[in-house]
Amino acid sequence: MLTAAGGLRAVGGDAAVMAEQATSGLAGLLRQLRAGAGLTQQELAKAAGVSPRAVSDLERGIHRTARHDTAVRLAGALGLAEPVRSLFVAAARGRIQAAQVLAARRSQAPGESPASAGGADPAAALGHFTAVRDAVAGRPPSPVLAGALVGRAGVLRLMGRAAEAAGDARRALALAREIGDPVGELQALVDLSFAADYAGHHDEAVRPARRAGQITAGIPVSLTRMCSRVLTIVLADAGQLAAAETVGAAALARARTAGDLWNQADLLPRIVDLDLRAGRTGDAAAHLREGLDLAMRTGSWFDWFDLLWGLSQCGSLCAATGRAADAVTLWAACAALERHQGVTDPSWFKPRREEQLRQARQALGPGRARAAEDRGAAMSITTAAEYALLLTDPGPPQPTAPGSGQLSARERELITLVARGRTNAQIAAELYISARTVGSHLDRIRDKTGCRRRADLTRLALSEGLV
Length: 467
Prior knowledge:
Layout: H1 15-23, H2 26-37, H3 41-48, H4 52-59, H5 68-77, H6 84-92, H7 98-107, H8 122-136, H9 143-158, H10 162-179, H11 182-198, H12 202-213, H13 221-237, H14 241-258, H15 261-277, H16 281-298, H17 304-320, H18 324-341, H19 350-364, H20 366-377, H21 381-391, H22 409-419, H23 424-431, H24 435-449, H25 454-463
Helix pairs in contact: 1-8, 3-4, 3-5, 5-6, 6-7, 7-9, 8-9, 9-10, 9-11, 10-11, 11-12, 11-13, 12-13, 13-14, 13-15, 14-15, 15-16, 15-17, 16-17, 16-21, 17-18, 17-21, 18-19, 18-20, 18-21, 19-20, 21-25, 22-25, 23-24
């Protein structure tokens, strides 16, 4: 049966049939994506500018494919980001399997944004892909199985299980080649590259990344740009910095020209890494802020792991520019968030971060270092992202918000909770007041400070050291 969390569990002899219904057809794909977006058929139809009957017919399988313009409209209404958006359109046109869309969506933690700290669940994603794999294992080779293996490989890698990830990626690659599935082959090569990179075999990681970039027939252009991003990462980790800079700059330019926000957001942290290695702290700050701003503006970093990586790099930037307390705060936030998400840094990267952290702690002394760590550990992912934006602001220090020093103790408590990512309802429950009272308090705070958005209140709390 399908659980409320979207996982698929095998029940009796119908497991394989159910797995294919959940992951292969456009009807099941559209139902899952619509449910994930929290939309009714009528709401989706209105947002997409199509008739409710059109949505109903697609979800009931009356029409097995959709017109291109309808597919594009539906992708937009569902809020799909690249490359899932292009893959959805291709699946709606009958060109690829729905499983490939779900694999890409699960691996980038869809819907996860800086505003939702706990939405991505690697263990649940691994359970989903494992259940699909097991349910179709005894059937003829199919993109469903290839997609499940690719999905498992991506999640296992983030969980620090690189050897298992490589094994699943190799199986997916062999299967995709056997059934003539170019998208599955590309995705498997990317996972093989990343698995080798995480294991510290950086030169070995370059080969599959290059091969993935050579697959172009039947591949959405956004995935082609993704291959350039992957190649940038593994070239840099292999120490081929000049080649990484060339590939990365060209890929970023293409993504900007195409308006490809997903690849821009994913490339910018890699460009920051190259800037920091070359000692270009000014360029690193500009690129880091661009990436963070893009993430917050679009409502998603498209990959929560990349957001953590960006925050860690902001810590490195602060350390390189003499701001040890800020560096320790950000690294402590990253460590807490990684523990919460169940992910881990690659083993070869840990000594690099630990040495940076040791030097920053030494510069601060035990007491200040502990205070900085406690501050970071208490931050939500929203707060940490806003903190990084504050630290990378290129302008002069902003004046204190009007009236911010005149806030009452209760009002300061309220903006502290806002900065920690609490909703009005959660604040009301925590303070034993009504949600309406919370709203009234926040209205008064906005009038006093001029901070209209919750993000502005978060920055106010950060600037005054309340979080």
